């Protein structure tokens, strides 16, 4: 009775679709008995099972005889070359005849884009750009192309010898996109009000900080401006503009051209701000193995504190942090080197200051690659506004065989001249090291001159087997007469004010992290700076350990800093953290500060909503010799930006802070408000699709016009943008909800998703005589795109349909095996004719029936009559 069954894949439908119990039971028995016989070979499905219990005649189901058939059409696929994801692309699938699976149409230019060396194989080199290659024999020995319909992946397997030579992570420049013309503005507004009482007096103060980062894109050109307004407790406000510049990338030179305010690289000379013109290489265009480095800042806050980071006198980062340890690892330093000054301001006004060292790692280039910089302009500093000497700067480095990279540079100014040369060496398993020597001659306006040398050694190593990362170990020694360019400018400023000047003598710094497997991890960061003519030293040490056991996380951190003052800062903190569910945790910490006082702190923190766009933190602290305090903070990341609110209350003081951050973008399609835009971004347009979310982007939703700005894309890398299918509103369907883009630096890309508007309906399709259409018949729209299959008793689920749509139903190859439906959607009253589908949790409108008519049906050639059958 049972013939060997074929695999049939049915699209997700509402639960209203059903199979008669007797037919379903028989099908399950056959599937259980013959399960091992399921194969990819052609098999035959007994259609009689679908007619048990009086079902209608069935359609021709031979399409499923070979398993999951791939029909001709366009499909969105993920392309994997030798197992590595390359891109997502829409490919046409073609079939020589209806009896065969359609195969992907892959052309020789596509293979070249995916890294195949097509020029080395005559058949591919001579192939027409529009001609599909034979997927079974593409002209390369042992190469093959296969398609996995169940995962929609195109698997391309090519021997490594047939691939183009490229570094790991390299992306073809033909995929880089410059984006559209647009204007943008990022803002961050921090407001704080503090009240203090002492000796019967009350004092109230207000502070404000407004950070602005705006720009305009015109083709490959980027105009950017960075400014900040800061009003201190004394009520005085000051505007400070750090960078205003225009830039563009130069692909042929693997570099960037910048005109205006920017900064010099710090690989050879210490970096500094300037105003002028710069042409330099951009390592972000290189593969992943050559990415840049930025320091990680760690510290501990006792209350809802403000953390301010300065570099060379300019504020480059400010944020509010909750009580407890904090980590800042998303810095975008304005200079390639130059120590960072970190100030932690507590709610009661106490400040903790320390210096975070920041230097370049060893200078290494791949064999045959160049790193260059040419800059002309005037020096700029937030400390010495009057001193702006002009200068010329040039640096050059080239990679040679055996992992050797020689480098050097010249820096010329009216009162300063310096030359440097050195080499970096890749030591293989021993790491990487660079050694260079600089000579400098400087003079002051009063005629004093001096010269000297500076020797620098840098080392970095990542020990993969032991999970040890020695990020940076550096040592520099300078003779008494040596000045860096920044020190020379500072010396002239000190001379103008008759202040003593101390130039740097020796410096040592290092950063180490070690993974201990199941035992946790440790980190160590240290630096020491000494000066000529001054006995005091600048020291910084951070040491920490963290681990977990059965959900309980624990850690111990020690911070020490001394900027040369009479009293160094020391703090030892021990913390425990316990999860209270998927989105909440509690922690307890104990600390000992510089004065020897013991303190403790209890925190309750977590997130809310499915995408965790709301976060909160409530804490209470106190201890021996310390006044008790309570702190609470709330952060909400919405579609239009981020809002942070904090409140601290203690003995004799209280503080409230509010932070608003977001962005605005204007382009040819209109103006869109959103989250902080970052440097590189994409505009997502979904016509008629408001309120649609973006995967992995908490709080981000399309606005009323179906537009959203996706911020913080990575330049020159594949960026995946995927719609959150669960957020699609009723009546909106998106065929391809995933795309990949490769933006250039600072680009604004425009990404459109094709959406169809309509209603979801469950309709009973019948012929002119009122009989159900055959089970398994295919339903197509006016463009020939398949929309559904007819279910049992003619019941069919349709999505994105509208009143008056014309549908074509086919159940065979003959002309008579088809008919057309003029879909008429009745106006449903509130709650009438609507049901909630358990499969996709959306409203589905039920239509009693729809008549399918055609000339053949009118002539009496209706589907075969339904005959009762008994098992």
From TrEMBL:
Residues 762-826 form the PapC-like C-terminal domain. Residues 1-39 form the signal peptide. It is found in: Cell outer membrane. InterPro entries: Fimb_usher, Fimbrial_membr_usher_CS, FimD_plug_dom, PapC-like_C, PapC-like_C_sf, PapC_N, PapC_N_sf. Residues 44-190 form the PapC N-terminal domain. SUPFAM superfamilies: FimD N-terminal domain-like. PANTHER family: FIMBRIAL USHER DOMAIN-CONTAINING PROTEIN YDET-RELATED (PTHR30451:SF21), OUTER MEMBRANE USHER PROTEIN (PTHR30451). Belongs to the fimbrial export usher family. This is Fimbria/pilus outer membrane usher protein. It comes from Paraherbaspirillum soli.
